[in-house]
Amino acid sequence: MLRQVYIVCTRPCLDAAPGVYVFTNFFQYLMNPVREGLELEGAPTPETELNPELNMDNISKKSHSQSPNKRVKFGYIKYVSLIVLTVQNAALGLSMRHAKTRDVEEKFSSAAAVVMAEIVKLVICICLVMHESGGVKTGVQSMYSTVVLNIKDTVRVCVPSFLYILQNNLLYVSAANLDAATYQVTYQLKLLTTAFFAVIVLKRQLKKWQWGALGLLAAGVAVVQLSSTDAKSSNSGDKLKQSKLIGFSAALAACFISGFAGIYFEKVLKESDISVWMRNVQLSLLSLPFGTGTYLIQEGTLNNMFKGFDGFIWYLVILQAAGGLIVAVVVKYADNILKGFATSVAIIISCVVSMYLFSFVLTVQFAFGTAMVIGSIFLYGYVPKKPVRRTSLSV
């Protein structure tokens, strides 16, 4: 009954954005088990990525205590969310590359696309907060008390808000200068930077195999970059002025920003009991001034902000907005190894599709480097099975 009232109350504001309505109901469905008693530990933070045991232990403890029907539903949500994440990861890199290199009369502003993605994400998160709070009125009251009245806490979120805006703009620069496959592989360095800041800032200790995985990851990306420097492709984007150095530098900067912002955001989440969706409302609200400022610096005016926005760009905006929310669901319901598998499949999909759509030339060196990166992802997420203690009964 509560869910029906929620949908009826929020439908008018969502009719203007059908894509938002679809994504909102998708996440609303995914979060239903939490309302029904399937309270799983593991917030969508870098902690579960850096310590896979935390996520897997919490999931196994909770899931085994549930009824068979709930375990079946849990497994369904887990694999559906992984499939969605795989498709989203692959589609985002390919779509960003196509958007920046396609031959159109009016080019869109990537800064404007970033701002619109934050607005879409804000609307989705507001609806999720209302659903989480039990209604529109209680949701609005909760947001007012958290965002407005608790202004000191809100100000703390300014740092990751600014960094995420900068990161998203850098990713567009990288996608414009690197082919989709190279971009997808290079961006996996965010795992390395996140681990680096976790060790430096949070004093977290990594296992020996995780250090080895990080070294393998760095070596794999280096091999891919060397192969992409030598390889030549004949796609339409080559007609544009591109620089491999600029693309790699932008991706590397985005990885460092992603690592630091993720660790900072993790500390903010740990130090309060505010929900992830409420934190995302704060992030998006504070990101809008930074994003608008970035657009003004690039364009000088807010006029023609939607220049070049067609159906494909709006699809890209919604796809980018949904990315962070999908990751939140995956980290909540799936373990780190399955998440790594989804990332690996997304890399393979990007390589294969790039060969057909962008005439990407797959070399042995690139394939070897990609295999190293994929292997490092699985190695980093590896969790050794705890030995079972057998007790003998004395007669």
Give a structural overview.
- This protein is an all-alpha fold and 395 residues long.
- The protein has one domain.
- It has 18 helices and no strands.
- The longest helix has 34 residues, at 68-101.
- It is globular and about 60 Å long.
- 45% of the residues are buried.
- The model is unreliable at 1-49, 52-64 and 233-239 (pLDDT under 50).
Summarize the structure.
The chain is an all-alpha fold and 395 residues long. Helices cover 76% and strands 0% of the residues.
Lay out the secondary structure.
Layout: H1 2-14, H2 18-30, H3 32-35, H4 46-50, H5 52-64, H6 68-101, H7 110-133, H8 136-149, H9 151-156, H10 158-177, H11 180-186, H12 190-201, H13 208-230, H14 244-270, H15 276-299, H16 311-333, H17 336-357, H18 364-380
Features:
single chain, 395 residues, mainly alpha, 18 helices, disordered N terminus
Rounded mean pLDDT is 77
Q: pLDDT under 50 segments (min length 5)?
A: 1-49, 52-64, 233-239
- Gyration radius from CA atoms, angstroms: 22 Å
Strand segment count: 0
